[in-house]
Amino acid sequence: MKVYLDTVRRVLETGTRRPNRTGVDTISTFNVNSVIPMDGGFPLLTTKKISWKNIVVENLWFLSGEPTIALLKKHKCRFWDPWADEHGAVPSPYGNLWRAHPGSRGTADQVRWVLEEIQRNPTSRRLVISAWSPENAHHSSLPPCHFAFVFNVQYDEAGEPRLNLHLTQRSCDVALGLPYNIAGYALLLHLFSRWSGLKPGVMGHTLVDAHIYTKKADGSMAEYDHVPGLREQLTREPRALPTLTLSDTVSTLDGTMSLLDRDTAEIMSHFVLDGYDPHPGIRFAVAV
Predict the structure, then answer these.
(1) What is the pTM assigned to this prediction?
(2) Phi-psi category of 129—alpha, beta or left, where left has phi over 0 and alpha has psi -120 to 50?
(3) Is 145 marked active-site?
(4) Helices and strands (H, E) in the chain, number of each type
């Protein structure tokens, strides 16, 4: 994943120290853009091990529209636990805003509308899904970070239509979040491609504020310092990317949603990742 390692290098080399709401300093850079083709393998980071199960379950949770983390807890995905309240609700549930975005005419199911619009009018420039609702975001303790994505159909050199996705992310934790963001939206691109009958093309990604958590200038809060682990990854040789095979069950949105009540092993049997051979994992502390 050269794109990921290039982002790490850019932030480390050009970023500036900034305080933020967590109390842990960051090294931050503005406006990092990348393009990730889908024909070179599935973009799951290989310079450290990433949980494929967590990526699949999290994105099924998003697509379900559920406002609580019950589905995540069922499958032992714990990374949303620090932000959930005693009822399991999170401050800004991405999927709930994807599937039931509030408006003056009621709620909008953006996922279903965009999917149907791709099929009706594949060259539309309005294939937008947003998790940014000002009424929620202006008062949320954790507004959506990856807040909007747009699909766009372009034609390749052979004249075949390809479905592309562009993700805009206002805030990105490079060490912990970015590998999951890249793989998660690549999975969504593959799913929407399957549902619409198009081949996946490329994923564009814009990071407005790309940051790396670091210890303070006086050396305190070293337990939150992500710099050493990222520098370790820069010494590791990236390995070949895996390939993704989706089962026939996930050929439609409704078929995919039918998996939600299945156990973890059965769900994962419909999202087969072959050839994933990463370097060992690296632990990073979460700044909440």
Answers:
(1) 0.97
(2) beta
(3) yes
(4) 10, 10
